[in-house]
Amino acid sequence: MTFALVLAMALPLNVAAESTYTIQPGDVLWRIARDNGLDWEELAEYNDLENPHLIYAGDTLKIPTAEEMAAMVSGDVTITVLATSDLHGRIYPYEYAIDSEDSDAGLAKIQTVLKAEKAVSDNIILMDLGDTVQDNSAELFNDDPIHPMIDALNYMGFDIWTLGNHEFNFEKAFLMKNIDTFDGTVLAANIHTTDGDYLSSRIRSSKRRCGCGYRRIAATACRYMGSSCTRAL
Fold it and tell me: Which residue in 9, 142, 153, 168 is deepest, having the highest Cβ count within 10 Å?
């Protein structure tokens, strides 16, 4: 049976859309900030500039809205955490082994919930907690360049995939292919390789990145919580 969790928490984030400014020859950061009603240090932090004294013509700066600035200072905005677990090869609500409907399972049904949540707010962290690619005849697709379950997670925009024990039912090459083809961040904190390294040290960062250049856990999370919120993942 598929397990789905919806958790809402308040964090100092904001949902408002930002604007951008293309740096022109002769521009300086303090003047760009002043013209947009900002402090130059706030603008530098918002764009995660390593050296705010060096900006280059042609580069793009993100300009926060007034609502975003207010949220950075004191506002609370709700982030919804959506989690699935034990999908076991179920995209559609169907159990192929017994040729019968499985009405409480499947990513297709979860997509309906996800669309409803996104209609309320885009501040969503979407994660799967593992036991994803095994069972329900999903093994028939193990030789595909990308497994249908991983393809579905990518299509739905899952941010995080945590490896479950059934991810290890098959050969290592299949495991690593699934890790490599998942677009989000893969978590595996307690798994060692034979040479003593943590498997997590071999996993590359998420292909999705937020505006400040770190992993896209939630596009606004790294913006207001600082780089540590996503580097830790």
Answer: 153
- Helical segments of 126-232, H only: 148-156, 172-181, 221-225, 228-231
pLDDT of residue 126: 94
Chain segment 14-62, per-residue pLDDT in tens: 344 568 999 999 899 999 999 988 888 889 988 989 888 889 999 999 9
Q: What is the pLDDT of residues 184-193, one digit of tens each?
A: 889 887 887 7
Phi and psi for 222 in degrees, rounded to 5? Answer: -70, -20
DSSP helix/strand/coil, 12: coil
Report the predicted TM-score, pTM, of the whole model to 2 decimal places. 0.60
* Rg for the chain, CA atoms, rounded: 21
Q: Judge residue 206's burial from the number of C-beta atoms within 10 Å of its C-beta, 0-12 exposed, 13-18 middle, 19 or more buried.
A: buried
Contact 153, 188 (CB under 8 A): no
Phi, psi of 84 (to 5 degrees): -120, 160
In the chain the domains, ranked by start, together with CATH numbers, are 3-13+80-231 (3.60.21.10), 19-63 (3.10.350.10)
